[in-house]
């Protein structure tokens, strides 16, 4: 081979190669293809993982991103005070009256409500929109069916008596505030474009298919463009009835990778990064030009025990497990940018919730755990399983508990799986214990009391799979009665007291060891002013730059 | 140079009476094997999908739904029917290009694929152009100057392309060229500001903007694609150059090379005119395989670069237990491999006179 090598060619080639490499380097250096971008002053640009979007129909939406978008494209009948989510403030309705028996609420709508299309926007369209939620029967219908509305009665129970008046009739004297919170939070009381949706109706779907890619609501913004898996543009409605949004457009770019979101934020290509990792947040915290903003959301992360399991059916064993959780240590190591310790079923910020101290009385106490286990008949511990999903903090928390449990002779086998599989196992009662998150829809203790404590029918064939207490095969008649009593108690102070004592008892005997309440947390450029939010919603229209 | 014995079987074959022209037999056989392959693939993926312990109904309705809604959805999806029946329905759907509804996006799988695949196809095509355009010359050079500094440099670059993980290269590339030097556009296919200036015709942003004569936007699209494509192309380059080098070394040690040199042919013509023509078939196979792997979608690269492509779609579908989407995508990957194989077969017939 080498004999055949032609020296002249070799030298020529070497020259060519050197020249090419040098040329390429100079070319590249002279080729700044992209100018430094700054986000436009009239638009808010966010990087967010928006993979899960499948529809913009308020009656169907149940996922975080679209929930937030609907809240900013669809005004609801009443709204939350941005600074205190437990306070209800006027929305589409400027005032409301409640009947003596608390079973009828009459809403008086604001004048001049407008739809982007210019179609009529009166109490009649609003009543139709609310009836539509129940008629379609997606998950969100539960917000109304829980309070006695159903497909048969909804047309008589939610009615427009004139263009500006809407009447809701309830089957029981529920606390008015709770009803208002429920309809304010859960996308069931938007005023939709009835005329347009009926024109677009396919096979009696009341416009559901049209709303898979469109919005048609009274609200400050409307969906201007959606490229699935790529980006979303919300455009301010010029004819909006309320205070005009300060920013003309909200641009959302789909970015799944937290590291990439961080790059875009620090480069100034986005104003807000929504899914930063705790490590990135810790790193960016305090950097000039970047602000970390957080707010507690109504989501609890807990360890649930199957009360049908021969070991976990004993409430002393369940209590012992609570003393194996290193709340403080985990709060400092794993959770600083994720959430705060919480043991009560009622989230911080909810009406009737215990305060931060009383709502989390536990600490790591191996002796106490050992003593409880001995009393329960397990002086040498036992062996059991913990299922958990893909939430990033699940594994470190489970491992920490596993280590503590080993010290009192309890052998916990950890089993990690896809979330869909985890949900199937837990819903099917096919587990001994598991870790998962649960989010309530109202800033009131009843929201979780009705799910995490109350179980009207513990039989397997009842299949109350939407109730975590049922999934845990847990039923306590005393707790059931107290949940019902607290729900219908008219005196707010007495009602609070009922919830306080219920929370204390459930923390001792309940089927879940609640561990943390989670944050909503973002990294934002300091150019973004008046970013306003609480645990239940984000208010795009007040933000400006 | 051609082995003389190779001609004998052809002569015998030529005497056989032909019932059908050879291209008809070829097309028939190919079609049959394609259909069997795809059917097998569909069956395998479908049944594996049904065996997975992931509940598609929970994936759609979420954790919070009632049993009534759950049962309704089971009926709606036809999951209460026997498995063979579901498979029959599925195959019938495929024949009419209906791959079912994707659970995660709520849209027909075929529409989703039509949306995400062009992004991957564009990226993979630019990457394979880079990989082939640099990989083949690099491989040939390395073989020509075996054990010289050129060979060592190319081997080093190749090893780097093999061993450095793409997502790491991607992040480092972004940090350097986007965050540090500001030469290129960041993640995504295009700056958000331009995103809505594009009228998708082909779905390939470079082509669409060029056809519209919208050069500002073209420049922007190019600034976004160049880094991910280079990184993917780098991986392909590593493979292509290594393979080309070993094919070439084998050819260069053949006696016909000596004969050509003795005859007085220049080194350049000997290598490119004789040796390279003889390895063309093998190189085509290598390039086609690399291209097929790129077309499957590079999940990690697509994630790092927020590239709305096929690989990420498929991975998300897998994680969510969205079996319609998974089976649909797997079928597409199957079709890609089968078509590239076919294309290779055709190219062999062009490159290699013996196969005609």
Automatic annotation (TrEMBL), chain A:
CDD domains: PBP2_NikA_DppA_OppA_like_7. Gene3D superfamilies: Dipeptide-binding Protein, Domain 1, Dipeptide-binding Protein, Domain 3, Periplasmic binding protein-like II. It comes from the Bacteria. GO terms for biological process: peptide transport. It is found in: Periplasm. GO terms for cellular component: ATP-binding cassette (ABC) transporter complex; outer membrane-bounded periplasmic space. PANTHER family: PERIPLASMIC BINDING COMPONENT OF ABC TRANSPORTER, PERIPLASMIC OLIGOPEPTIDE-BINDING PROTEIN-RELATED. This is Peptide/nickel transport system substrate-binding protein. It comes from Phyllobacterium myrsinacearum.
UniProtKB/TrEMBL annotation, chain B:
Keywords: Cell membrane, Membrane, Transmembrane, Transmembrane helix, Transport. The chain crosses the membrane at residues 26-48, 123-145, 166-186, 221-240, 279-305, 325-348. It is found in: Cell membrane. CDD domains: TM_PBP2 (cd06261). Residues 117-348 form the ABC transmembrane type-1 domain. Pfam families: BPD_transp_1, BPD_transp_1_N. PROSITE patterns: ABC_TM1. It is a multi-pass membrane protein. One of its GO terms (cellular component) is plasma membrane. One of its GO terms (molecular function) is dipeptide transmembrane transporter activity. Belongs to the binding-protein-dependent transport system permease family. This is Peptide/nickel transport system permease protein. It comes from Phyllobacterium myrsinacearum.
């Amino acid at each position: 081979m080498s004999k055949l090598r032609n020296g002249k060619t070799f030298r020529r080639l070497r020259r060519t190669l050197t020249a090419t490499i040098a040329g390429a380097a100079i070319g590249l250096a002279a080729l700044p293809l992209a100018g430094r971008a700054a986000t436009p002053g009239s638009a808010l640009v966010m990087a967010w993982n928006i993979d899960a979007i499948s529809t913009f129909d308020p009656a169907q939406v149940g996922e975080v991103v679209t929930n937030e978008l609907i809240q900013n494209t669809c005004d609801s009948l009443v709204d939350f005070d941005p600074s205190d989510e437990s306070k209800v403030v006027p929305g589409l309705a400027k005032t409301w009256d409640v009947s003596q028996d608390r079973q009828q609420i009459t809403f008086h709508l604001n004048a001049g409500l407008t739809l982007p299309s210019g179609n009529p926007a009166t109490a009649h369209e609003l009543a139709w929109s609310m009836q539509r939620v129940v008629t379609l029967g997606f998950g969100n219908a539960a917000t109304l069916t829980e309070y006695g509305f159903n497909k048969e009665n909804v047309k008589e129970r939610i009615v427009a008596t004139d263009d500006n008046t809407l009447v809701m009739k309830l089957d029981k004297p529920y606390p008015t505030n709770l009803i208002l919170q429920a309809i304010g939070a859960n996308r069931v009381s938007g005023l939709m474009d009835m005329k347009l949706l009926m024109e677009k109706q396919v096979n009696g779907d009341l416009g559901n298919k049209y709303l898979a890619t469109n919005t048609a609501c009274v609200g400050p913004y409307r969906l201007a463009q959606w490229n699935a898996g790529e980006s979303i543009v919300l455009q301010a409605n010029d004819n909006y009835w309320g205070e005009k949004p300060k920013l003309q457009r909200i641009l959302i770019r789909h970015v799944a990778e937290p590291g990439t979101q961080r790059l875009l934020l620090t480069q100034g290509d986005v104003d807000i990064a929504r899914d930063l990792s705790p490590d990135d947040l810790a790193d960016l915290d305090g950097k000039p030009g970047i602000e970390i903003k957080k707010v507690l959301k109504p989501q609890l992360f807990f360890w649930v025990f199957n009360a049908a399991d021969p070991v976990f059916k004993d409430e002393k064993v369940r209590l012992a497990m609570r003393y194996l959780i290193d709340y403080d240590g985990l709060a400092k190591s794993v959770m600083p940018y994720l959430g705060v310790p919480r043991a009560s079923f009622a989230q911080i910020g909810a009406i009737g919730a215990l305060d931060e101290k009383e709502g989390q009385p536990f600490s790591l106490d191996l002796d106490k755990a050992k003593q409880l286990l001995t009393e329960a008949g397990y002086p040498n511990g036992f062996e059991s399983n913990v299922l958990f999903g893909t939430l990033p903090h699940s594994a470190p928390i489970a491992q920490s508990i596993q280590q503590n449990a080993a010290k009192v002779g309890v052998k916990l086998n950890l089993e990690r799986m896809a979330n869909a599989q985890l949900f199937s196992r837990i819903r099917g009662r096919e587990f001994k214990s598991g870790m998962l998150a649960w989010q309530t829809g109202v800033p009131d203790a009843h929201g979780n009391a009705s799910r995490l404590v109350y179980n009207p029918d513990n039989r397997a064939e009842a299949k109350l799979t939407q109730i975590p207490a049922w999934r845990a095969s847990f039923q306590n008649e005393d707790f059931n009665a107290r949940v019902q009593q607290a729900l219908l108690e008219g005196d707010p102070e007495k009602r609070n007291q009922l919830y306080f004592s219920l929370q204390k008892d459930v923390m001792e005997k309940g089927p879940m060891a609640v561990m943390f309440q989670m944050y909503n947390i973002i990294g934002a450029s300091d150019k973004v002013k008046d970013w306003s939010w609480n645990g239940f919603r984000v208010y795009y229209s007040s933000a400006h730059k | 140079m051609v082995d003389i014995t190779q001609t004998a079987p052809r002569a015998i074959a030529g005497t056989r009476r032909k019932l059908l022209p050879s291209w008809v037999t070829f097309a028939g056989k190919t079609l049959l094997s394609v259909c069997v392959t795809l059917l097998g693939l569909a069956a395998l993926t479908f049944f594996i999908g049904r065996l997975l312990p992931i509940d598609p109904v929970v994936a759609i309705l979420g954790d919070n739904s009632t049993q009534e809604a759950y049962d309704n959805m089971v009926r709606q999806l036809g999951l209460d029917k026997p498995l063979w029946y579901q498979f029959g329905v599925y195959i019938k759907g495929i024949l009419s290009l209906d791959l079912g509804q994707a659970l995660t996006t709520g849209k027909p799988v075929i529409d989703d694929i039509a949306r995400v695949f062009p992004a991957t196809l564009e990226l993979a095509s630019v990457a394979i152009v880079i990989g082939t355009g640099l990989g083949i010359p690099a491989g040939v050079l390395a073989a020509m100057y075996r054990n010289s500094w050129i060979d060592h440099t190319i081997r080093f670059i190749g090893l780097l392309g093999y061993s450095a993980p793409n997502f790491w290269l991607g992040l480092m590339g972004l940090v350097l060229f986007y965050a540090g030097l500001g030469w290129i556009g960041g993640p995504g296919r295009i700056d958000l500001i331009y995103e809505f200036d594009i009228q998708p015709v082909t779905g390939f942003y470079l082509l669409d903007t060029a056809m519209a004569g919208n050069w500002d936007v073209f420049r922007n699209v190019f600034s976004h694609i160049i880094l991910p494509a280079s990184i993917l192309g780098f991986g392909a380059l590593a493979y292509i150059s290594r393979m080309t080098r070993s094919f070439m070394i084998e050819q260069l040690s053949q006696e016909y090379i000596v004969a050509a040199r003795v005859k007085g042919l220049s080194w350049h013509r000997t290598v490119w005119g004789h040796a390279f023509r003889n390895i063309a078939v093998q190189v085509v196979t290598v390039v086609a395989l690399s291209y097929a792997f790129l077309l499957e979608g590079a999940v990690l690269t697509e994630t790092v670069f927020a590239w709305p492509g096929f690989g990420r779609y498929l991975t998300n579908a897998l994680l969510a237990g969205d079996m319609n989407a998974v089976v649909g995508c797997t079928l597409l990957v199957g079709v890609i491999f089968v078509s590239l194989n076919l294309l290779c077969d055709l190219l062999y017939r062009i490159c290699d006179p013996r196969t005609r």
